[in-house]
Amino acid sequence: MSGLYKVLYFDVDNTLVDYDADACHAFGKASDHAITKHPHLADKLTAEVFKRARESTYIQYGDIGLPLRDWYRECMRFALEALEVYDFELADQMGQLYGLFRNTMLRVYEDVLDVIPRLASRYKLGLISNGSTRIDKLQIAQYFAYSVYAREIGYEKPAPEIFLAAAKRSGCSNGEILVIGDGQYTDILGARNAKFKMVWINRLRAELMRGIPRPDYEIHDMRELLTIAPI
Q: What residue spans define the domains of the chain?
């Protein structure tokens, strides 16, 4: 198996870094501003409200259907309107604050810190992401030779085009690439659509959703990847 793969492409959010913690921190900063105008929201702008607003924004626009600043504004608008606050100007201000504080509290998972330098000694590593998380200032940045972001390509996972763009960028065939990600719809289904082998990093030990094909491999800690892509 050691000679099978040449490139390992990793999803970013909740695969390499704790996206949820960083995003909730940014939402907290945006919420602090909202509370100055609407004090009754103090105990209502919760992480769960934010999560539902984020999902609603994705359902309506996908990851790349709007410029990033507008995406953030719409997410804040959904959060406010869920609490019966209809204030477009406030949503825009919150979106700007959210964007300002995103990527400021990113934490690389411990298992990732352990594994990535070891894998980089044997394979080329790449990033493939629908999101806006940047790892440039993180400890693992130096180990990645390629990056493919949906907003740069014009296609988002699970569309096969973003995976095929990753293959073209690395100069490898589909069979020489292994994709690692946490997303069921985006990563598992996307890799299957593009005919790539895929490792599902399932830290939360979630059940597969209906309609999602079983991945080629499932792991619960990134260190287990070394048994699939040995060094």
A: 7-17+106-228, 19-103
